[in-house]
Amino acid sequence: MDNGGTFLRVADITATLDTVLTTMRDVGADITYRLGGTSAALLQGVQLPVGDIDLLAARREDVDKFAAALASFPCFHAASWFPDSSQYFARYEVHGVKVEMSTVERQVDSDGMECVGRGPWQHYVWIACRSHQVPVVRLELRLATELVRDRPDRYEPLLDHMSAQGCDFDLLRRAMRDQGLPAERQCLVWDRLAHSAPHRNSDVR
Fold first, then answer.
1. pTM here?
2. Architecture of the domain delimited by 10-193
3. 101-141: pLDDT as tens digits
4. DSSP character for 116?
């Protein structure tokens, strides 16, 4: 899902998140969420195309609180259940930027997936967005997702960034395995990252 063909900048994302989170705070909407998708990667320094802002919610009631807080903004999709993808989903437009929040209600025994299981709740970093600290899903999980989707315009910038900055190799290995990336493609990733900086500690949140 994109933002009408226009790619977002870091400033667009931080300003929009500040508006959304301030609006929720002002109405007492205390929710558990993570920022995922390409906007999460851009905020961590990866230069790649971003069309919208994707927020992962822990519970359906969090999506309902999000929707209620943003009721004064244009609604593109009211909070509702998508059985095919097991998502409870809502989408609004905030100052021209599409912002989505959803649950992903599939049970998996893995910490290596970006939107399901323990992964997004266990592996994240805090990023400042003006007056807020935002929990952002780690790049290792996003890279595995983009590799599985075979989107080189997304995974190539991620590989370049992680080759220069390092990564958590153990987490990336689990993510690629658990997301079903073929062994030969995993080998190509390791070849690209063979000379990367020392990996980051997987305990860093």
1. 0.90
2. 2-Layer Sandwich (3.30)
3. 999 999 899 999 999 999 999 999 999 999 899 999 999 99
4. S
